[in-house]
């Protein structure tokens, strides 16, 4: 064997070894979402004098955990005051570069005496790096109890939806769900809006395209003169889940279902009708 042949053989062996290592890395990094765990830690609670704060915090945390579980994640709740559990579950595993576990810290950021912003941070356990910091619009604790409960629940659902999209954008663990409750084969459904201002409708469409799980695109089909607009919406999510996320989004914005808006499913269409005046809708924008 000549020196040139020997050198070629060595280089080929090195390339095969590198290829094998790279393929093993891809296999580990491509773990599905069911193969890693999200720890949920309640960091800063909602504090209010007029409302039952324990009930509100329970509604928020349970809604967040339920929605993340429904999407397909493995969820473990951790008491922020339980130091032993936190140290075991949340200690960074720097020696395991393929550890995909995450920690979610929930916070209510105080903006005033009766105003808070629901928020959450997504932290990678392996290096304590912040993957995303997301929040919803402020909620007021001085309002009617039932309405506040609905806003807190909707904020949690919206945060879970946004967390999914952030992780999907990062390709964290190559998020793929096998026959989860919300998922369906790719389909085109219609969205009809009635009585929306341009500003609110534009916000709605942007959130659908950027944050709704399974959304591929949403395009204007027809803008009517009577306030009725129709969109073509390509999505992998089932129509009833899209309707639920739309309801949560509008409730999060401060509208009450039934009195302020109504959502109906008509075959392959979702129909949303707003009852509030344009001036009240403009306040959201």
Task: Explain the overall architecture.
With 285 residues, this protein is of the alpha/beta class. The chain folds into 2 domains: 33-170, Rossmann fold (3-Layer(aba) Sandwich); 184-284, Alpha-Beta Plaits (2-Layer Sandwich). It is 40% helix and 30% strand. It is built from 7 helices and 11 strands. It has helices at residues 3-29, 53-71, 83-90, 145-170, 198-211, 239-252, 278-284; strands at residues 37-44, 74-78, 102-112, 115-124, 130-135, 139-140, 183-194, 215-223, 228-237, 261-266, 269-274. The strands form 2 sheets. Strands 1, 2, 3, 4, 5 and 6 form a 6-stranded mixed beta sheet that branches. A 5-stranded mixed beta sheet has the order 8-9-7-11-10, covered by helices on one side. Helix 2 (53-71) links the parallel strand 1 and strand 2 (74-78). The N and C termini lie far apart (76 Å).
